[in-house]
Amino acid sequence: MDHKSIFVLGRQPAIGRAELESLFGAEHLEPIGDYAVASDIPLQDIQFDRIGSSIRLAKPLSTINTTKWADIVRHIMREMPKNMDYIPEGKVKLGVSAYGLKVEPRQLLRLGLEAKKLARAHGRTSIRIVPNTEVTLNSAQVLHNGLTGECGRETLCIKYGDKTYFAQTVAIQNIDAYARRDQGRPKRDAYVGMLPPKLAQTIINLGTGPLSATSDHVVLDAFCGTGVILQEALLMGYGAYGSDIEPRMIDYSRKNLEWLSTTHGTSTDPILEVGDATSHRWQHPFSVVAGESYLGRALKQWPAPDKLHEIIGTCNIIITKFLENLAEQIPSGTRCCIAVTAWQSPEGRILHLPMLDRLEDLGYNRVRFSGASDKEMVYRRPDQLVARELLVITRK
Question: What is the structure's pLDDT at 347?
Fold first, then answer.
């Protein structure tokens, strides 16, 4: 494969691989170790700001047949002078991030200082090195130091077997933009759960499948809450159709989407209606189902066995009835991505909804990904007891 772009994956790489496979197809992707995916898709054809589970987009530079840090340093220092010729006049900002390599932050800082000395020897006197506290610079460091700008460079060193890939970051996940449209919305409700916008993007991308510039998808979220899925669907250029059992949530979604239209210029009018997802009849057309179902009560501590059994049973009934109701209203082949509840025990064991074992009886086929197993499609943080399992299915 001719590598034209590299995606650096987020905190849960398997979900990132599944999202990219959903959008672009496995035939266009090649995993580079556990941390990145190379692609034959040109950089200019990638709308990176609509991808939720990749944190960097990079341009491939070169490869060397070693993972020894001393050899890596020599390669970077040999290549740097010619790369500096492409940086316009002005203050140069440089950074380095390493993935999978046996290296410490102090070694990366030392490399930066050597690079600064070499750049000065070649006539570039105004140079700033972004210091590493970890082996990878975080998104804020890359974004706020302008390392993807004209006078910025972040070099990525990625281990792949006995090779090291080198790449240059050209886009970084915009954490500021996510924060603005998450925290800036007029109506938020922590009680019903806070769906991060980047996770909403991933759910939509897993639900829509292959990305098409001419797509006229209408995304249905049958548990729309405060409208995060609908918000991200509109920003992607899709139509938005939301329903929720609570009139208050429909009012919140409406106000949030009006705010979005004012602040982000979205023009498509969303459809919003009150309805219980287990019995509602959706009267307007839609082509994709994406959303977060009822996740049950928030847990601050692991419940007693009988209480846990009750919680799992309630969630299982609701999602089962929803899928039964939905199956009666959608044609064969309709694709869905639903975030359903999973539970993470204090020992790290994941408990799944029992209904997942009878999806075919409910009229669905589960979509499988070459880059992620079913068990890896659970979005969670180490300290959370309630997790989200990203269930991607199609109507039989």
Answer: 87
